[in-house]
């Protein structure tokens, strides 16, 4: 038979003057109509006290005290307790010990340990490994305290578990105990001191249990939850701020929010193996950047952003479809104040033609003679259209790629007709649809998607390059200066060709001057890191996101991104949506991408999830609860990888 006592406290309105003065700190009387103030607001109407638990206003609670700690702990070692999914109150009571007192007591403790070791040696007994470890830790800690490198603290850690019934409370207490044991903590139930344990975990600053252990500065700092590897939350009030929530921290229960516009530059690189979730993360970044008013332009090789664009009122331009044309020789209106505009457009045409004619070896397909005759043909085409270096002529209709081939056929150099023949498929042949006519569409809007799915593979790189040029005309327009994000999905298509890689590099270097950020998304890390230009693009990206990687490229990634062994292992074993975020300010955080059910329905790339249901449900409608994918479940938990650090903690003996 357990002893139970029941305390019935009077109703707040019926308390005596002395009771109210004790709770509220005032010497005033209370009447039925007076409000309850101060700590009286936290006083329950009844307490049922038992030997191992307490009932508070219908809730059962029990307190678990931590009486032993591991010798070594890692950063954020207390975070699993704070992230417990049930109701668990964690109280940490800290009292600093004066250095003089700490030094005196450490000397006494070290003397007791050393005398014990010598007594064992005189008696011929084997050395006690635990005693040796305790003596070593005490000696090192005493030296640190003497040099002022550390301080000692008296720490009490208490856990109060709540449940609706006694049976549930037993199960919850067993789960918390198992969690504590997994952290190598030794715990005991606060039996016959249930009220003291409950009060010690209330936000009152009272420690009625007084079960304390000695901690040094490093061990205590490692346990504070604020030392977990969470990114500092961006300042939403900063001018130009546009923070984006990516998901949850894999090492804690914190939220990972990142503001690319607060970094040294606004560019980002996202790389991961197929199926790792890079397109999902890129689309989530686009959608949440739109929440912040950022204009977005997307180079979409697989038409994955069509549903997203339709849902938020964006514009979709499908290159390669009938009636869609882009003229690479157009002179942008906003740059007509530049005296070198004609020369710059001619150089861009060089880049485009080199990309069109690039062979599998990637040498660009043009030798020195070919580049010379091409340059002459481009200028001749402009002259025949009445466009010269005089800015007054730049408003006239620009020539077409067909006019360039005509000039090549009329060139005296034999390389001209040869080059014209190589360009014939893109002028009069099967690939002429994109370049056959003047530009038909001037895409505008807060979200513009350039879909390249209809383009044949031979035109994917050239279409991406042409699209980037059209985007750059908008980005560089000083009359329409605003925050813009340019997303290049499957960037390996450009990086595989030197000419395209050079153009992408120039865009990465100059985007910041125009308040724009370049986001390169690629699954082929080897192409991105296999060239000097690719590495330069990475170096000019202050935001770097790494998802699951193939073992064949992990060594190169380790060298380029300065990955630790733990980070490299995490990237090799990461699940879908798990990523490592590296920022230009030196922060490194492991995260899991998290989207709401409505966002998940818009941005998922899984065909089974994005397809319409048999009943004809619109995929843009919010999913029903039974259709919500498990990946969008905010309650999904992840195992954390915590590097072990040596933190001397007093575990077996307490000198105080």
How would you describe this structure in keywords?
656 residues, alpha/beta, Rossmann fold, eleven-stranded mixed β-sheet, eight-stranded antiparallel β-sheet, 19 strands, 36% helix, 16% strand, elongated, disordered N terminus, disordered C terminus
Coarse morphology: elongated
Range of helix content: 25-40%
Number of strands: 19
| Through-space gap between termini | 37 Å
Q: Mean pLDDT across all residues, rounded?
A: 78
What fraction of residues sit in β-strands? 15-25%
Number of helices: 22
**Largest beta sheet: what is the strand line-up?**
10-9-19-18-17-11-16-15-12-14-13
Q: Note poorly predicted spans.
A: 1-33, 613-656
Going by CATH, the architecture of the domain at 257-331 and 443-614 would be: 3-Layer(aba) Sandwich
Radius of gyration from the CA trace?
34 Å
CATH topology of the domain at 257-331 and 443-614: the name is: Rossmann fold
Largest sheet, in brief, is:
11 strands, mixed
Given helix and strand content, the structural type is: alpha/beta
Task: Give the C-level CATH assignment of the domain at 257-331 and 443-614.
Answer: Alpha Beta
Fourth-tier CATH superfamily name of the domain at 257-331 and 443-614 = P-loop containing nucleotide triphosphate hydrolases
Description:
The protein has 656 residues and is of the alpha/beta class. It has a domain at 257-331 and 443-614: P-loop containing nucleotide triphosphate hydrolases (Rossmann fold). It is 36% helix and 16% strand. It contains 22 helices and 19 strands. It has an 11-stranded mixed beta sheet. Strands 1, 2, 3, 4, 5, 6, 7 and 8 form an 8-stranded antiparallel beta sheet that branches. α10 packs antiparallel against α14 (457-475). The radius of gyration is 34 Å and the shape is elongated. The two termini are 37 Å apart.
